[in-house]
Every structure is written in structure tokens, then in C-alpha cells.
Amino acid sequence: MANTQQLEDITTQVRRDILRMVHKVNSGHPGGSLGCAEFFVSLYNEIMDRKEGFDMDGIGEDLFFLSNGHISPVYYSVLARVGYFPIEELNTFRLLNSRLQGHPTTHEGLPGIRIASGSLGQGLSVALGAAQAKKLNGCNHLIYSLHGDGELQEGQNWEAIMYAAGKNVDNIIATIDLNGQQIDGSTDTVLPMGSIKDKFEAFGWTVLEIEKGNNIDAILKGMAEAKSLTGKGKPVCVLLKTVMGNGIDFMMHTHAWHGKAPNDEQLAIGLAQNPETLGDY
Amino acid sequence: MKTYENQGNNDTRSGFGAGLTELGRTNPNVVALCADLIGSLKMDQFIEENPERFFQIGIAEANMMSIAAGLTIGGKIPFTGTFANFSTGRVYDQIRQSIAYSDKNVKICASHAGLTLGEDGATHQILEDIGLMKMLPGMTVINTCDYNQTKAATIAIAEHKGPVYLRFGRPKVANFTPVDQKFEIGKALHLVDGTDVTIVATGHLVWEALEAAKALNEKGISAEVIDIHTIKPLDAKAIIDSVSKTKCIVTAEEHNHLGGLGESVARVLSQHNPTPQEFVATNDTFGESGTPAQLMEKYGLNADAIVKACEKVIKRK
User: Residue B90 sits in which domain range?
Assistant: First the structure.
């Protein structure tokens, strides 16, 4: 068990990884990655019950699916930091012949990845399939998934949300990154979605909110509660209220850094706000 | 010339249902999914015998394809069942990202392909699906010709690791290939020996090609007939070997001439052995309502059309 300070140190290092990865290739999505850094660090270090090493079927362990694949920087950083592949490989993000493609893929055989994602709206369905495979295999471990709030504008999500409740898929915790931002602006200006909580509940899900989605203690407490609600006949949704760009002051509370990399000067400022903890890759 | 006996008309979709039932009994990893078309896909028996391995998704094909991708994570071999139109065009991006690019072991089983779906009309008659699916890297594309072959192919694809598109149809058609045959993916079937023209056909057009060969034989024309059940990977050698003897070829399929078997054959021949070719296929058009026989007649997809194409291509030698 890591303590909160240790997890915060990892998060600080992950923020540095994210900034350095997108800066080097002048592309990628830092905003949403930074907003979910605490969640990923908590998930992979504390929340999920994982086996050593990696095999595709993942029987006997909890599995995670990232539906909003554009936040690959945080995914890759955390996968490397917990040991799925060497941290030096973060240097190859988005480069030719890299396993760290712009969006996550199984195609290059990167350990830790079980499905390609990036074309939005498919991840919840995939996660439900994996959840049902777990049931068929008599495996009591859980499926975790993450989705953007803007991503819920894709209709396939609602097919999956309806299915999960209708078929009592209760071994899944689907987390929505509720940062209120998408590429073109705030979700309210692009396409107001009303209450996401009400919608999930109307479809028959158990919904739990984590108000401080960038606070590690709040995440650990909320996800523990979510886990306690699984296995009761209903799928579980966590609404994780995060700040896009969290941890880099000039990137916070705006959609401007959704898909834009910092320049040299901005990188220096961002790194100064997040001193090295575990050592840069 | 060698002739084939019709063992009694039957539908290829029932061959799929029979194959799936057998897989249910022999392979515990096989699971099935359907989007509210159990009866049309003949999945009833599998479901009755294996209720825990069947997933009724409802009318939500996108969800079905992605759930199938997820089920492979844990070692399952999902067979999805719906009409060809809803198995391909409607869910192309789900198949592309979550199945093909992710190299998931999903078997996309597509019934009611082509014009022979009949009276429902063009909204349901897809004539573009072979093209859509063969363009996806890593996708195997199979179009079976009769009940026996469809049953055998259904069983065979469970043993093949990787995504497969299995295309079959609705009407009862001649059943003439051997009972309990072993189906070999990617291996063309040499049905009739001939010297004047090669006919390569897929799906429902294979029986029509055999009928055409008989009619040509009566006219003193010797036609070689090859069943190309696997459009990708294509058995290029079988085609090249045949045209090196006959010097001309007719391709026949229940599909648009753009993107279908004919274009795959033309690509192989243009690279290895340029050969006069005629296409029995639809001519960049949608279908319409009608009986299967009326539609195949109107759109030129029957034995008569194959005979005419053979006579035309022989003159081009």
C-alpha cells in the first residue's frame, strides 16, 4: 500500500512525463491527460488488483479500458511507471515505428493495452464484453473503464448504457471524466447534455460522484465505495469531477490545451511547477 | 463434363445455424451474439442448448460489434449474427477499430446478403459488403455457395485465429457440395474442368455457374468452373493456373462490380497474367423489391448472364 504522499509524488512525475512527451513531438492531448493523472495513478497503484506481467486475456485480475484514447500520454506514463514497459520508451511517443501510437493500440503489441481506442464511443461496449467474458470464466475480478464527458455525445454509449443495466452487468465500474470541456469549447456550449447523473440513473445504473476528482484521497475513498456497490445486479458509474490541465496553472480550467502541446518556455514553466520526484525518463 | 446433383434446395443461413449448433457442442469458447434477428439467422438451436453463451443485444449493432470485441478478452470466440447490411456498413468503424485494427478473434456472420434478400428492397440488400470488408487489413472474407459449405465454413472459422467476415443468404438454393466436407479457408474449389473459358464464382452464383457450364457444353464450349468461397485471402494460383489454359475468364458474384470478387481477380491477373475478363455483377446500382429470381434476372446475375459473358469474353481472346 502506497500512502497519499507517495501517490502524489508519482502523479507529479506523471505530469512531467505528459508535458515532456507532447512537447517533444509538438502534438498530443495534455489537457485531459493532466486532468486524469491522479485517477490513473490511484487506479494502477492502489485500486485495481493486477497480476504481474501482461497477458491479453487478463483472467484473475482487474482490467481497465480507456475509451477516450486521446489521453494516451497519461495512460502510457502510468503503464510505464508501474512496470508494463520501460520508461525510456516514453521517449518514442508518436514517433515513427513506436509502440506508443498517438492513440492506444494493440497493433504494436504494447503491454497493458487490450483494445485500440480513439474513435470515440466504443469503449463502454468493449468493457461490457470483457465484463461478460469474466462472468463466463467464473472470474470475480472487475472491469474499470474511463470515458470523456464530451464523448457521451456519441450515441453508441447509450446503447451500451441501456444494455448494461438491462442485462445486469454488475462487475463494471465505468468512470466519466467530468471536466466540462471538449475540443471546441465547454460541453455546455458545444452540446448541452443536461444532468449526466440523472441520465445514468434513469437507465438503471448506480451512480456515485467524486466531487474532488483531482484529490487522491477523494478518489481512493470514492472508488472503494464504487467497488462495494458492484455485484448487486446493477452497473456502477462514477462521475469524476476533474479540472482539465490540472497541475499546470496556465493549462487549468480551459479547453485550450485539449490537443495542443506547450512550447519550450511553457514546458519550462510547467516542469518548474512539478519538480522531479521519481526521475525523468 | 462433371455435373453436380442438387441434394435438395436449402438456405445457406440454415447451414450457418447448423454449424453454430455443432460448435456449441464441441467448442466451449464459442459464444453467439444477435441484434434481434435470431429466427432469421437460424440461431435458435444454439441458444436453446447454450443459453449462458448467447447474448441478445437488442437492435444495437454498434454495441454488438464492440461487445464481441470485448468478449475475446478472456478467450471467447464470438459469432455475431445479423443481416449483411447491418453487419458491415452500419458498423464499419466499430469493426475497423475494435475488431480489425485490434486483431480480435470475432466472426462476423452476415445473412441476407445481396439481391436475393428479395422483397425488403434496397435498404436491406447490401451489394457493397465484400468490398468494405476486404479492404480491412487482416480481415478474412468468405462467401459460401450452399447449405453444406456454409455449415462447414462456420465450423472452420472457429479454428482460424483472427477476424472473419462470413457472408451468406436468405433464399433456399441448390445444395450440391458434399455433406460433412472439410472447409479450407483460402483454397478455391475446382468444380468442373474446361479448356475454353474459366468461370470463377462465389456465393449463390456458383450453382448458376455450374448451370451455365452445362448450357455452354451443349453449345460445344468447354467451361472450367471454380468456386472462390474465400475472396480474401484469394487463391491466386488456382486462378492463374486456370487462365493459363483457357486464356479468358468470367467472374460472377452477387455484389457490385466495384469492390467485389471480380476486381480482386482482375488485380491478380493484371499483375501476373493479363487476361480478357467479363464481370457478372451489379453495375454500380442499388437493388429494389422483387422475388429473388426476378431480381437476379433483372440485374443479370444468373446462368443466362454467365453464358452470355462467356461467349463475349471468348471472342476477346
Answer: 10-173
On whether any CB of chain B is under 8 Å from the CB of A225, the answer is no
Indicate if B161 and B227 belong to the same structural domain: no
Question: Which residues of chain A does B65 touch, with a Cβ-Cβ cutoff of 8 Å?
Answer: 125
A114 touches chain B (CB under 8 A): yes
- Tens of pLDDT, residue by residue over A206-264, are 999 999 999 999 999 999 999 999 999 999 999 999 999 999 999 998 889 999 999 99
Among B121, B149, B173, identify where a domain stops.
Answer: B173
Residues B133 and B221 in one domain: no
Whether the predicted pLDDT of B205 surpasses 90 = yes
State the nearest Cα–Cα gap between B206 and chain A, in angstroms. 37
Asked whether the beta carbons of residue A137 and residue B102 sit closer than 8 angstroms, the reply is no
Q: Do A160 and B63 touch (CB under 8 A)?
A: yes
User: Chain B contact for A159, CB < 8 A?
Assistant: yes
The model's pLDDT over B247-304, given as tens digits with 9 standing for 90+, comes to: 999 999 999 999 999 999 999 999 999 999 999 999 999 999 999 999 999 999 999 9
* Inter-chain residue contact B62 with A125, CB threshold 8 Å: yes
How far, in whole angstroms, is CA A261 from its chain's centroid? 19
Encode pLDDT of A56-111 as tens digits.
Answer: 999 999 999 999 999 999 999 999 999 999 999 999 999 999 999 999 999 999 99
Listed in sequence order, the DSSP H helices in B95-169 are: 129-134, 147-159
Do B286 and B310 fall within a single domain?
A: yes
Residues B88 and B137 in one domain: yes
- Cell triple for residue A244? 482539465
pLDDT in tens, B133-159: 999 999 999 999 999 999 999 999 999
The domain that holds B200 is classified in CATH as: 3.40.50.920
Residue B4 lies in a domain: no
**Closest partner CB to A115 (pick from B57, B93, B98):** B98
Q: Closest CB to B74: pick one of A57, A125, A160.
A: A57
Asked whether the predicted pLDDT for residue B180 surpasses 90, the reply is no
Q: What pLDDT, on the 0 to 100 scale, is given for residue B119?
A: 95
The helix or strand, by DSSP H or E, that contains position B251, with its residue range, turns out to be strand B249-256
CB contacts < 8 Å between A and B, how many?
Answer: 116
Is B218 part of the annotated catalytic residue set? no
Angstrom distances, CA of residue A170 to CA of A79, A232, B57, B72:
26, 6, 16, 19
DSSP character for B182? Answer: P
**Chain A contact set for B57 (CB, 8 A):** 163
C-alpha to C-alpha distance for A108 and A78, rounded to whole angstroms: 18
Which of B66, B73, B98 is closest, CB to CB, to A56? B73
Length of chain A equals: 281
Query: Based on C-alpha coordinates, what's the Rg of chain B?
Result: 19
Confidence of residue A2 (pLDDT cuts 50, 70, 90): confident
With 0-12 / 13-18 / 19 or more C-beta atoms within 10 angstroms meaning exposed / middle / buried, residue A60 is middle
Instruction: List the 15-34 stretch of A: residues with Cβ below 8 A of B.
Output: none
Rounded-to-integer distance, Cα B224 and Cα B295, Å? 26
Which residue is catalytic, options B61, B211, B263, B278? B61
CB atoms under 10 Å from CB of A3, counted, come to 9
Average pLDDT over residues A15-22: 98
Q: Is B214 within the bounds of a domain?
A: yes
Chain B residues whose beta carbon lies within 8 Å of the beta carbon of residue A127? 70
Domain A4-272 has CATH 3.40.50.970: yes
